[in-house]
Structures are given as structure tokens and as C-alpha cells.
Specification:
By secondary structure, the chain is α+β, with helices and mostly antiparallel strands. It has two domains: 42-290; 327-457, Glucose Permease (Domain IIA) (Distorted Sandwich). It has three helices and 13 strands.
């Protein structure tokens, strides 16, 4: 799944004067925090605009999907129609094959009749040849013994001649019919071949249509999934920026309180100094007057008076000892992976591993927790925003087993924030730590090598 945590202009919730490391002027610190809050608001507005554009794109794609669905329905109908045509043609082929078989039977009968007539004609020819050629029908008639015999012989001759004529005509008709039947069979065979060819074309068209449908369905599913993921990312980004803005507002309020307390402390110190100066002046005047009186009285004794200096304000309670520098090592363990190219990709942080149970993870510097949540890739993750010497930084603590601070919490350098773990996209128990000079963003363009910024190995 693509990274779901978005562009945090997380300058957010950064730097509260002395709490965040580096002493800054009150006005510049508050102004810096307010500027950073405006940047977050601007980024959040951009994200909301992107969400609106994503909604428009989703609606557009849904419209396209409706068109695709309509096209798929059309293809389904075409496929169904093609299947019906194939069924009809297959039946036509079967019918044609049966007709061909029938014609072949009729042709066989005709061939047998022709063969029989050929034999009859051959017999007649042999008889003619044996009788010395063509029979003389005149001799037959003249051989009559009576008139009635003559009539009988004439009728017999006429019948004989008519029979021969019919045999010849039928023989020719059967030959013509045979040729016609043969042409018909050839035509039927040609039609059958064409039907088979049409059937093959239709089958190919059907396969092509099915392939097109599968392709359209695949594209539809992919587009829907991509847009779903994109909208989820935007929604998560907006939520992160919202928490950043809230943390920033809290940082501004804390800074205002600090400024007010600092002003009150300065006012009290000024009042105390003025009172002390007035008391010292009164005391000096009294001493001078007393010296004048003693001189006038001629007394030899003098009283010795010494003033006790005003007590120095006590130093603030010391914080737990942490390593020097802007950032400390956030956990204990062995450095297993550095910043830079790794396994064909780029590693935007550093890793420490420790097999011990309940390995604590602490804030590398003081700041405000800009986000604390569970990410599909980072697992349990904490983002902390810092303002050090006027520069905004963001540290990331990923794959935690558990988190002990929530979004908006103010943390001190070295403060416990969770335990090392193996959550999210992780292949073993370790802490993945990132340092960004500025806010965190999806492309991680602000990521820097923590070791180059003083983080101990």
C-alpha cells in the first residue's frame, strides 16, 4: 500500500522558547510559532483543495465507470447474440449435412438406373448387330398374313419404336438430373465450408470481445482501488495536519504564558532592585547622619555596621542529565542501518536494534508531539516538532511497541515516549529514527542524516 501519511508542514507545534532548546527573544519566538501555524493552515487548505479535486476526479471516474459498465453490458449482449448465431449455424450445418447424405442416396439410385438402361441399350445394340444391323420395320409390316395381322404388326412396331425413344429420353433426363444433383451437392458443400468459416470468425470475435471485457474490468478495478487509496491518503494527511495545527495552537498558548510569566518575573525583579536601591540609599543617608552626630558629640566610639548582600535567586531545578548537543541518541542498542542507499532503495533514517525486553525510546530533543498514531507502514509512530536556534526540525520514531505520549503533548529532551518494537512494515525489533530539517513530507525531501546533526551512533 502506498505511504498514507502525508505532507506535514509540521513545523507545527514547534519551539516554545527555552523549553525547545536555544534562548530566543520572546517576540521572535512567538512570531516564529505564529508563522509556522499559518504555514500549517495554508498546507491544510491545500490538502482540503486536493481532497475536493480528488472527489471531483472520483466522480469523473465513476461516470467513466458507468460508461464502461454500459459498454460491458453491450459486449455481454453481443456475446450472447453471437452465441445464438453460432448455435443456429451449427444446426444449419447439421441440417445441410443430412441433406447432403440424402442427395448422395438419390444420386446412387440415379446411377443404378442409368447403369440398368445402359445394359438394356447394349442388349438392343447386340440384337441389331446379330440381325445384320438395323431391323427393317417395312419388312416386318410386309410380312403380315392378313390385314389384321398388318395392324397388329404396325402397332407393335410403333410401340417398339416409342419405347426406344422413351428409354433414350429418360436416359438423357437422368443424366441431366444427375449433373444437377452433383452441382447441388457441390453448392451445398461450398455453403457448408462458408458456414464453417463464418463460425470460426464468430468464435474469434467472441474471444476478442471476451478479452476486451476482461481488460475493461481489470482497468475498472485498478482505477477504483487507486482512487480509494488516494482518498484515504488525503484524508489521513488532513487529519495529521489538523493535529499539527492543534499542537501549534497549544505551543503558541504555552509561549504566551511563558512570555507573561517572564514579564511578571522581570517586573518583580525590577521592583526588588528598585526597593533594594531605595533601602541602600536610605541606609547610606542614615549612616551619614549618624556619623555627623557622633562627630559633633566628640564620642570616640563608633558603631560598625555591615550590610548583608541580598540573596541571589536560586537556580532552576536541574533537568535529568542528557548528552550535550541539539539531539541525543533516542534509544540504546546497536546501529544496524544508516542513512542513504540500501537494497536498491533509499533509507531516509537510521536504525537501532536491541534484543532486550522493554527497550525505552526517548525524545531526542524537547518539542511538541505533532502526531502519535498507528500507521500501516510506520506501525506505532510518533512525530515530534522542535524549534532549535530558530530552525524547525521534525523527528520520527517508528515501529514502536507502544506509545506513551499523545498528539499535542509537550516533551523534554530525554523524556520517555515509548518502547522499541516491531510494528508496521518491519522485519525485526528495532527503532527507525528520522530527522527532517523542517516539516515531514511524503517525498521526505527534508530528511537529513541524523549522525551529521550530532545524534550519537
Amino acid at each position: 500500500m502506498r505511504r498514507s501519511v502525508m505532507a506535514l508542514t509540521v513545523s507545527a507545534a514547534v519551539g516554545i522558547g527555552s523549553l525547545f532548546g536555544g534562548i530566543q527573544t520572546e517576540a521572535s519566538t512567538l512570531s516564529n510559532l505564529q508563522n509556522q501555524k499559518q504555514e500549517i493552515q495554508s498546507e491544510r487548505n491545500n490538502v482540503n483543495t486536493n481532497i475536493q479535486e480528488a472527489d471531483k476526479e472520483i466522480k469523473r471516474l465513476q461516470g467513466e465507470q458507468q460508461k464502461v459498465n454500459a459498454e460491458i453490458k453491450r459486449l455481454d449482449f453481443a456475446i450472447s447474440d453471437t452465441n445464438e448465431k453460432i448455435r443456429v449455424k451449427e444446426q444449419d450445418i447439421k441440417d445441410t449435412q443430412m441433406e447432403i447424405q440424402k442427395l448422395q442416396g438419390e444420386i446412387k439410385v440415379l446411377q443404378e438406373r442409368i447403369a440398368q438402361r445402359n445394359e438394356l441399350l447394349k442388349d438392343r445394340a447386340r440384337n441389331f448387330q446379330e440381325n445384320g444391323g438395323m431391323v427393317s420395320y417395312i419388312d416386318v409390316l410386309m410380312g403380315a398374313t392378313s390385314f389384321s395381322d398388318f395392324v397388329d404388326r404396325a402397332n407393335a412396331v410403333a410401340t417398339f419404336m416409342e419405347a426406344d425413344k422413351e428409354i433414350l429420353e429418360q436416359h438423357q433426363a437422368d443424366k441431366d438430373e444427375l449433373e444437377k444433383k452433383q452441382k447441388q451437392v457441390e453448392s451445398e458443400l461450398a455453403s457448408l465450408k462458408k458456414m464453417l468459416a463464418d463460425l470460426e470468425v464468430m468464435k474469434k470475435q467472441l474471444a476478442s470481445q471476451r478479452s476486451e471485457k476482461d481488460k475493461l474490468m481489470k482497468e475498472l478495478v485498478e482505477q477504483e482501488q487507486e482512487e480509494h487509496d488516494h482518498k484515504m491518503e488525503l484524508a489521513e494527511e488532513e487529519a495529521i495536519l489538523s493535529s499539527q495545527e492543534a499542537a501549534m495552537a497549544k505551543a503558541i498558548e504555552l509561549e504566551k504564558v511563558r512570555i507573561a510569566e517572564e514579564a511578571e518575573r522581570a517586573r518583580k525583579e525590577a521592583a526588588a532592585r528598585a526597593a533594594a536601591e531605595a533601602a541602600a540609599a536610605a541606609k547610606a543617608a542614615a549612616a551619614k547622619a549618624s556619623a555627623t552626630t557622633n562627630s559633633n558629640s566628640g564620642g570616640s566610639s563608633s558603631s560598625h555596621s555591615s550590610s548583608t548582600p541580598a540573596p541571589t535567586p536560586s537556580a532552576p531545578v536541574a533537568k535529568p542529565v542528557v548528552t550535550a548537543g541539539n539531539f541525543m541518541k533516542p534509544t540504546t542498542g546497536v546501529n544496524t542501518s544508516g542513512f542513504g542507499a540500501r537494497w536498491g532503495t533509499f533509507h531516509y533514517g537510521v536504525d537501532w536494534a536491541n534484543r532486550s525486553a522493554n527497550v525505552p525510546v526517548v525524545a531526542a530533543a524537547s518539542g511538541v508531539v505533532s502526531n502519535s498514531y498507528y500507521s500501516s507502514s510506520y506501525g506505532n509512530v510518533i512525530f515530534i516538532a522542535h524549534s532549535i536556534n530558530g530552525q524547525t526540525y521534525t523527528t520520527v520514531y517508528a515501529h514502536l511497541d507502544s506509545r506513551s505520549v499523545g498528539t499535542g503533548s509537550v516533551v523534554s529532551k530525554g523524556q520517555f515516549i515509548g518502547y522499541m518494537g516491531n510494528t508496521g512494515h518491519s522485519t525485526g525489533k528495532h527503532l527507525h529514527f528520522e530527522l527532517h530539517k523542517g516539516g515531514w513530507n511524503q517525498s521526505k525531501s527534508n530528511a537529513v542524516n541524523p549522525f551529521a546533526y550530532g545524534v550519537p551512533r
